[in-house]
């Protein structure tokens, strides 16, 4: 049976869109097209299809994005700052530099202070994103079955 469904949902700063298409086929053939970051969910999505559909070629297109800014961290390279401070003390002792090292001086030294996104979860995909993808995929599959 042929059918089509599209469902989108946004929760907690994450947006997921799922499009499902099906065409007649003698056997069940489930195909999931998703970004590599969602690759771990492919087996779960195929299991959803096997629970609800007995035959046909079912093609899922999944897109997911985070709509909020990622958390950031400030990293101070203390070893480099110590070496710079020692070099300034040496220059100060020889009369080349006057005054103390200020916060604005530290900010102008390349590589001493870095603001970067926090490291990703070692497991890869956040639980909230996984749950949202599977929920939206289930809703899209229900809409597809209702249309068929």
Describe the structure.
- By secondary structure, the chain is of the alpha+beta class.
- Helices cover 36% and strands 31% of the residues.
- The protein contains four helices and six strands.
Structure summary:
The protein has helices at 42-52, 78-93, 103-108, 127-147; strands at residues 3-11, 14-23, 28-33, 56-66, 72-76, 113-117. With 148 residues, it is of the alpha+beta class.
Give start-end ranges of low-pLDDT stretches: none
Structural shape: rod-shaped
- Gap between N and C termini, in Å? 6 Å
SSE pattern, N- to C-terminal: EEEHEEHHEH
Mean pLDDT: 86
Q: What's the total count of β strands?
A: 6
Strand order of the largest sheet: 1-2-4-3
In DSSP terms (H or I, runs of 4 or more residues), the helix count works out at 4
Largest sheet: 4 strands, mixed
Structural class, by secondary structure, is alpha+beta
Which helices and strands appear, and what pairs or packs with what?
Elements: E1 3-11, E2 14-23, E3 28-33, H1 42-52, E4 56-66, E5 72-76, H2 78-93, H3 103-108, E6 113-117, H4 127-147
Parallel strand pairs: 3-4
Antiparallel strand pairs: 1-2, 2-4, 5-6
Helix pairs in contact: 1-4
